[in-house]
Amino acid sequence: MGFHIVVCAGIVPDPLLTLEPVTGPQGPALKNEMMLPAVLDPWAKHALFEANHLAANTPDSKVWLVSMAPKTKLQQVMMSIAQKASFELVALDGPASGFTDSQAVAEALADAINCINGIDKNRLFIFGGWESASRGAGATLQIVGERLGIAEQFQGVDELRVTDSGGLRILERVEGGLHQISHCDGPPAVLGWATGNLPEPPNNPQVGMANMRTLMPSLQKAKPAGVEVDGKTFVNVEVPKQRRDTRIVKDASPDDIAREIVEWIKG
Q1: Which of 53, 91, 190, 201 could cross-link 222 (Cys pair, CB 3.0–4.6 Å)?
Q2: pLDDT value at residue 214
Q3: Residue 262 lies in a domain
Q4: Predicted confidence band of residue 167 (pLDDT cuts 50, 70, 90)
């Protein structure tokens, strides 16, 4: 039997932009956030491509993309990403800000997954980004898995292979540029993807047209996520300050350079 793969993916402002945090009526936010061009979170994008590849090579498989964001911004992003991978969108109308509590986001995502018609939890994979350009708490995906009762969780995944016996061989990143090889009997499982090893697929208009049949109805039916701040406050939010002290020194030995760098860091 094939797999049911749910990809949890948020949208973020284009990472190449300079972002300026401000304090708004609802708490911390980004200046002109609704005007900033958005993209699918880069780590989650890798997860989507890996899910699409796995489903394409495993008969009777299906991919859902669950995303919480303002509907107007989500629609803009879906217009571009829909041509690259086949999926059915499950949209939640809610904040996409990185200041949203990861537990509240995870609860909303888990509830949405539980409401997907026809999903088989015995065949279920939860894919997502190991990191995030907005919600980089490292906990959202894990909480989603726990709320769904999935104990087999793997983070920092670069490769997933299905063995001849139906088991899973997973490469997880560890320190020193090495990988830990993990084995799992099969789904259900949660995989937080790093970069994976697949290139970004080219645009395919036929895939985009097929996705549009479900994209627009899903966006129109998107329910408010109901994610609240719950009294959480941020004392200060600011862009990290750049510091650059440059000196030009000739004929310095590597040991002297390293020693000076260490002293500068300590200082």
Answers
A1: 91
A2: 81
A3: no
A4: confident
Beta-bridge partners for 126: 6, 190
Q: What is the pLDDT of residues 169-201, one digit of tens each?
A: 988 888 877 888 989 888 889 998 887 777 788
CB 41, CB 129: distance < 8 Å = yes
Q: How many domains does the chain have?
A: 1
Angstrom distance (rounded) from CA 37 to CA 202 = 21
Mean pLDDT to the nearest integer, 242-252: 76
Q: Which residues constitute the domain of residue 56? A: 4-224
pLDDT over 60 at 263, yes or no: yes
Asked whether 43 and 6 are in contact (CB, 8 A), the reply is no
Residue 196 within any structural domain of the chain: yes
Structure tokens at 102: 């990861």
Q: Which of 43, 187, 196 is nearest to 128 (CA)?
A: 43
Smallest CA-to-CA distance from 160 within 199, 191, 137 is with 191
Q: What is the greatest pairwise CA distance in the chain?
A: 69
Query: Is residue 98, in this structure, part of any structural domain at all?
Result: yes
CATH of the domain at 84: 3.40.50.620
| Secondary structure of 23-61 in HEC code, one letter for each residue | EECCEEEECCHHHCCEEECHHHHHHHHHHHHHHHCCCCC
Beta bridge partners of 168: 162, 184
> In angstroms, what CA-CA distances link 94 with 73, 85, 112, 222, 262?
11, 24, 13, 9, 45
Q: Which neighbouring-strand residues pair with 211? A: none
Between the two ends of the chain, the Cα-to-Cα distance in Å is 59
Q: What is the pTM of this model?
A: 0.78
Computed on alpha carbons and rounded to an integer, the radius of gyration of the chain in Å comes to 21
Give the pair of three-digit tokens for residue 111: 């509830």
Asked if residue 257 is part of any domain, the answer here is no
The DSSP call for residue 17 is S
DSSP H/E element including 108: helix 102-114
